[in-house]
């Protein structure tokens, strides 16, 4: 006990805020009494988040479902002097999706594309009435102005999921969409999507695993080719950018670091129609050329069935694979479909020009989960980051002005003028097609005239543009550093 | 087919090295024939790693089991002109263990402490006769001069583990040790160790999960305290450094980013005897003082039982916890114990002064899995990175000189003089105890005189020393950048 005695004595001398006598220790341990006493008021608050209907002496509460582009841009723009913000999402960060493909092969690190919500809107972790809950929304009750939630327990058996209710003055549904499989059997079981950071992590782990397994003695050449065959289904920007990154990774890093197996690895991009259909014809030709040059096999085909080691096309062709990435666009999630709210064509939550959900009060929907109602005469907007972000920005301003006009509370909005409706103006599209090559299409629509270019300049524009779009300075800094180190040292291949 | 036709035509024009006609595509897909033809010789080699006994026209083969400090330092030092190197390990990277504790709370990123083996010894991924296999060694046959291996499949159901055999001219066993639980029930099930990157990842995910769950409405204060009670068992350098990092994380980041729950989170360090027992008394007192000041509760006690949400001490005290980290030292792994080789006191593989395993030929053992035989009259060395590294360096030089003297082949070593035996000289110990505070003890042993200091200077020495010890420039760069960003922007709290 020499050491312990000395420690006690020391602690006494220092008269630290902590208990110092051994017994007291153990008591404090067993009773778990708080030692550093917070100000009572604060303590009470922090002990029980009050999520009942807001009292006149409280700020009105905006509940945000989701943490994607739309939700985060909204929360960033909301005036936290006028509102308390409560965010509910199974993910405590926003993913900078345009750069996600680069993380799969280690061009960028995972954290460089993940932005903690608490940094986008610090109020949720500091303001007394604002919160972030790591939970899924399980139900919306428009009449009661409340949502039902259930905590994420991440499969930890010792944790019981908690159910709780949050009442809102304004509800913003920004739940995004989910990858569509078109009901093709085996996709969910065998393919990896590319929408979240953990998807990118899974792809990276599997790719490196296959590279190493394929080098094992006694493995047949056929099996080796299968393990090292990376198949990408879907020729949209995500699929194309991932294929480009992959072929770049193969040409640069695999040839250098996996010399034994470099001749067995191949990338195949399968698309039912045209790749990058939203882009200008010239750019599409350029992309096709670049991808082919860098060794990506472009195959036009329709997937019929997905087995654990091969996919089967409509024409019966069997394509063995070691890694299958699925990026064939998105659709509304089962939860969004299940909501008893008006729907837009395609099953998204239907909104009017002000992004309100009609027939219910104080509910708004933005991002991939929402679409204009047919009655608006406007087309459902594409599921793009820039649409979601623009909607988030617009709605933040709308809600702020509503609050100024005294319409922040539940059921108090109807007599307030909402100002201009939301109008979307497409700023153009960009996509990389591998090393130092990209497409930039600045036309507002496929038909419109406008600048469209391809090659190194576009690649430079692509990088600069995204670097400036990255949310925080920290990540901007990290992305730049990642690009620099990848350029200097090559990609990281440690499988962690 | 417009797009497809155009693509074919384009590809023809460009006359790329890839097949261009759609049918050919599908054939090449189904038959999986290689397209970019490698030089036949190379191809043959890469198709079937030859791991049979080496022929006179081949280099002798050194098989290395493990990828820790000892194994990696050895591979780095081996003369690849004299030897082919084959490394077998379930991990394709080396972990820079002294900085692992910093990654749990985001002071450093995981990749900054992981060094791909292919970067430490490029030959294993490029030289024709050298390989890295992601596999576990399942058996050693000294008479046959061969090892049995089985590939790691990472729980992927579609993959059958491959068994294969490697014959060696020289075998180096550097399998390290595993965390010891002293047979205490429930440790393996409920505690997290701190030896691998995935451990640090698990700790970080769990810590952030608990921080968020504890903020959920309706959760009892007792449960909140439990979730946010971080218990560290073991007062060695790892336990102390982790406790320090954790309290630093709490004081800096939790208070800022999790203001709602900041008053409920506590760290308790449980140690049966003295913390940092290898250090000078003065330093130990200093560490005790610092830890207490920064809010770490030091408890002297012995753990009797570990349940899923609480641990029970010998005196019956129950300590509820949300996160339990176990770092009470290491012992030989079951596989090492199972090997039919001479053993040192403590059950490690017994070696003589030249790190040879007596009674068998061409087998060496280094690092935490090995220890001097009693017959050598030398004490078993502590399981430290610096011991392992020094042994790896020594053995590399020994094997290189053996090769020069023509003793590289199996059974050809005995008549060759091995030169000076291995002598370990302790360079001293370092440990951080939280923000800007560290201990540096440069005495060669507890009894010896020598410099020992504590405080900011030591902290500076600690950082500089480790920064220079980091293996690659890439990671040195990243560690520096991480420290910088943590200093400027705070730690990253996105839970990915």
From TrEMBL, chains A, B:
Q: What is its main location?
A: mitochondrion
- Catalysed reactions, semicolon-separated: a ubiquinone + NADH + H(+) = a ubiquinol + NAD(+); a quinone + NADH + H(+) = a quinol + NAD(+)
In the bilayer, the protein is annotated as:
Peripheral membrane protein
Native species: Eucalyptus grandis
Which taxonomic lineage does the organism of this UniProt entry have? Eukaryota, Viridiplantae, Streptophyta, Embryophyta, Tracheophyta
Instruction: Read off the PANTHER family from this record.
Output: NADH DEHYDROGENASE (PTHR43706), NADH DEHYDROGENASE-RELATED (PTHR43706:SF13)
What keywords were assigned to this record? FAD, Flavoprotein, Membrane, Mitochondrion, Mitochondrion inner membrane, NAD, NADP, Oxidoreductase, Peroxisome, Transit peptide
What is the annotated role of this protein in its UniProt record? Alternative NADH-ubiquinone oxidoreductase which catalyzes the oxidation of mitochondrial NADH does not translocate protons across the inner mitochondrial membrane.
Indicate what this protein is called per its UniProt record: NADH:ubiquinone reductase (non-electrogenic)
Q: Which GO terms describe its cellular component?
A: mitochondrial inner membrane; peroxisome
